[in-house]
Amino acid sequence: MMEFGTNGYAAPAAGRKGGAAYDVPEGVDIRGRYDAEFAKILTRDALQFVADLQREFRNHITYAMECRKEAKMRFNNGGLPGFDPATRYVREGEWICAPVPPAVANRMVEITGPTERKMVINALNSGANVFMADFEDALSPSWENLIRGHVNLKDAVDGTISFHDKARNRVYKLNDQTAKLFVRPRGWHLPEAHIFIDGEPATGCLVDFGLYFYHNFAAFRRTQGAGSGPFFYLPKMEHSREAKIWNSIFERAEKMAGIENGSIRATVLIETLPAVFQMDEILYELRDHSVGLNCGRWDYIFSYVKTFQAHPDRLIPDRVLVGMNQHFMRSYSDLLIRTCHRRGVHAMGGMAAQIPIRDDPVANEAALELVRKDKLREVRAGHDGTWAAHPGLIPAIMEVFTNNMRNSPHQIHSMKREDAANVTEEDLLQKPVGVRTMEGLRLNTRVGIQYLAAWLTGTGSVPLYHLMEDAATAEISRVQNWQWLKYGVELDGDGLGLKVNLDLFGRVVEEEMVRIEREVGQERFKKGMYREACKIFTRQCTAPMLDDFLTLDAYNRIVIHHPKGLSKL
Q1: Helix, strand or coil, per DSSP, at residue 133
Q2: Whole-number mean pLDDT of the chain?
Q3: Cβ–Cβ under 8 Å, residues 300 and 258
Q4: Cα–Cα separations (whole angstroms), residue 222 to 40, 100, 113, 176, 216
Q5: pLDDT band at residue 12, thresholds of 50, 70 and 90?
Q6: Cα–Cα distance between 515 and 119 in angstroms, integer?
Q7: Is 494 helix (H, G, I), strand (E, B) or coil?
């Protein structure tokens, strides 16, 4: 068993001397399991680079996180997010970002997924233009998942990756033509508790970025980037000061590598409500390193609830009703397109989370038609590309975009969307409309518990009810339940007239656990972590104060420290 220290993470166990160990620089302590393959990633020089980043930027990161807390207090005291008068000169200035590298001019369809080995091969071979390998919401950040993910990406960049599926007796290898690789590190708020630097857990995103960049920048620029890159996605940003830190990290990495300024390129996910008011400022801070913004719409809905957690007049309806037809969501998309194209970079659309329904052709075609309609809306609005969660969606999405893009790789110069210059703070904050139902409460509970159970057992991308779910969906489920409980909302959409309270929620949890057991089967239910997930999810939904992130609470459950000298056991 682990012993937990005062920082909430397991204190290092006293172990015997001897046995294999990682070669670490001064001030670095690795508490994850030793593995000879992992040691090829966790080299002394790579760890030194990560430690240098941590020491140089940790105070800047700490300050940015304190600013987030101040903003949260302001919103909880009745304040509203809005455009910053102090940076009007940036929003109104005539400036553009550095030209888009030819290697990523065409980004019509991007597939996303965790860094699991078979997934990496299939995604790179999928026919998509880009594969975003995810260390964030689609990955449960256990030590094994994290470092094996780096092994997989290094092999992918080197072109040597293969996977033998023994169950199917099939070997997977890369095709001659593959998608361009982007990597998404974790958000600022997540620690890496298996690596300590100067006695503190490392910042998760610096570990993700530092290890990947150090090992792959040279090969990537030669094989994928045509002399540019590597390419990244940056999540969970709330303010341009956070973009400024990333820009400085990129400059520091380029200097270390001896490559020219502006080689590294990144797309920022606009997936928090405060960030939508900072889009110009975020692009400005990253103007030498930017290749656009992305509508991270599921996290954006989560952020809307979180931002307005103390505003009972801003309760959202059933989450299935909060789509791009809502005025505040459409306004966000329109302003993002206008902002990106004005600054000369890609405006990426949102995720199509559907999974092919192989045993029901009629339902499958209906689901595909929903995807086509959503993507047609995006391309006609001016988006330059979009996301898919499953390779089976790529042909349909690619057809929609190619048919509407007039043989151009993007719409940066042809769809300026000047009409969106009139989008106001009120448009971006407009309350969503729709009803709340018992089925909405049940679905939130069922999805939240099942996702968390999978996450606790090492899976961060989970197929549920013909949708590929990641942490963002679980977060929406959690915060909506919390909001409905806190304000005792009436379920006004199904004629029942019930008010959400602890008794009702307790009954729903019991009944949905029975349903989950029936759906997954008794044996899988017993072996899984459904009861543990239920406890965590229920506690989060009923807490007096809303926790910022579900995965921060759950992270302690997957941190495993190994005694020094026993790391091979």
Answers
A1: strand
A2: 94
A3: no
A4: 21, 18, 24, 15, 10
A5: very low
A6: 30
A7: coil
DSSP reduced 3-state for 196: strand
For the chain, give the percent of residues with pLDDT over 70: 96
pTM across the whole model: 0.95
Supply the pLDDT for residue 5: 38
Question: In 3D, which of 202, 215, 198, 274 has the Cα closest to residue 242?
Answer: 274
82: amino acid identity, one letter? G
In DSSP terms, 432 is beta-bridged to none
Tokens of 141: 């950040």
> In whole angstroms, what is the distance from residue 211 CA to residue 223 CA?
19
Structure tokens at 51: 């430690």
Could you give the residue ranges of the DSSP H alpha helices within 318-415?
327-342, 361-381, 394-404
174: left (phi over 0), alpha (psi -120 to 50) or beta: beta
Query: Could you tell me if 286 and 239 are in contact, meaning their C-beta atoms sit under 8 angstroms apart?
Result: no
Give the residue carrying structure tokens 């094994």: 144
pLDDT (tens digit per residue) in 365-388 = 999 999 999 999 999 999 999 999
Structural contact between residues 370 and 484, judged by C-beta atoms closer than 8 angstroms: no
Angstrom distance (rounded) from CA 74 to CA 69: 9
Spatial separation of the C-alpha atoms in residues 358 and 159, rounded to whole Å:
32
CB contact set of 359 (below 8 Å; sequence gap of 6+) = none
Q: Give all strands of the β-sheet with 191-197 in edge-to-edge order.
A: 28-30, 191-197, 200-203
- Show the tokens assigned to 422: 């009139």
| Residue numbers annotated as active site | 184, 470
Contact between 174 and 185 (Cβ < 8 Å): no
Q: Which residues pair with 4 in a beta bridge?
A: 10
Instruction: Give Cα 186 distance to the centre of its chain.
Output: 7
Residue-level length of the chain:
569
Contact call for residues 354 and 390 (beta carbons, < 8 A): yes
CA pair distance 289, 232, nearest whole angstrom: 10
